[in-house]
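Table S2 (continued). Query chain:
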Amino acid sequence: MVQHKLVVDKGNQTLYVLNQGRMVAEMPCSTGNGIPANGYSGITPNGVYSIADIVDSKDLVWDGDPRGQRKPYGPWMFTLDDNPRGLAIHGTDEPQKLGLAVTHGCIRVSYDDITRLKENYVDIGTLVEIIGK
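Corresponding output:
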């Protein structure tokens, strides 16, 4: 697989896929809203990370659901090497909010886009740079 790089621009809520510095894909995303909630900081921290794991997340339950039934992450979750913060890129069951800073800190994309990333661009070790305000 060709090594790609993901760039998450918080300023315009867009995730870019680069190949040797050239943009090959872009997709709307959502990043942190800066409001702490449910034990998360609400901040998507700037920096350079790498994908530490690719997790089948279709059956993962959101820990903020008291009934334990909400499974919002979609088919894949890419955990970043920043733990213990728990930063990840994953799908969302609220695609209408893509393009807005609404998360607890993670980076959300559509279910279709998380699948496209997994199938075409992402592997363990893929670099992820987070930039912007």
